Amino acid sequence: MPMKIIYALLTTILFSFVIVQYNDPDPILWVPIYGYGTVLLAMATAGKYHRVATMIGIIGYSIGAIYLFPSVIEWIEKEHGQNLMQRMADSKMYIEETRECGGLIIAAIFLIFSFLQHKSKSQN
User: Is 57:65 a contact under the CB 8 Å cutoff?
Assistant: First the structure.
């Protein structure tokens, strides 16, 4: 599969994260977070890769995921790792934060893929 198709697919997936933020309690925060990675992947699709910006994204997404990871543990303890798609409730913020942690991990993985892909190209 050509890399442009893979990048287009990753861009589309991350853009879908941006779109579903309309019902998030804090879209002003999450739209730019996911939008950042979406733009980087869209640029990579167009052949305009930015190494430093990608590294900043990887670091930022990773720090965010680490910060939110205690909520994943709380979700596992309280919900036994189930029912992640239930409605948001103030008493169960760990559910929303677990979702956010997962989204940040996915975004980081996408950017790590892009980074490694371009790193291997530059070594050839």
Answer: no
Contacts of 80 (CB under 8 A, 6+ apart): none
pLDDT tens column, 43-65: 999 989 999 999 999 999 999 99
The DSSP symbol for 110 reads H
Of 24, 15, 66, whose CA–CA distance to 42 is shortest? Answer: 15
Cβ neighbours around 35 below 10 Å, total: 15
Q: What is the dihedral of CA 51, 57, 58, 61, to 10 degrees?
A: 180
pLDDT of 91 above 90: no
The residues, any chain, with a CB within 8 Å of residue 44's CB and separated by 6 or more, are 7, 114, 118
Q: How far apart are CA 105 and CA 79, in angstroms?
A: 21
State how far Cα 83 lies from the chain centre: 21
User: What span, in angstroms and rounded, lies between the C-alpha atoms of 69 and 75?
Assistant: 10
pTM of the complete model: 0.90
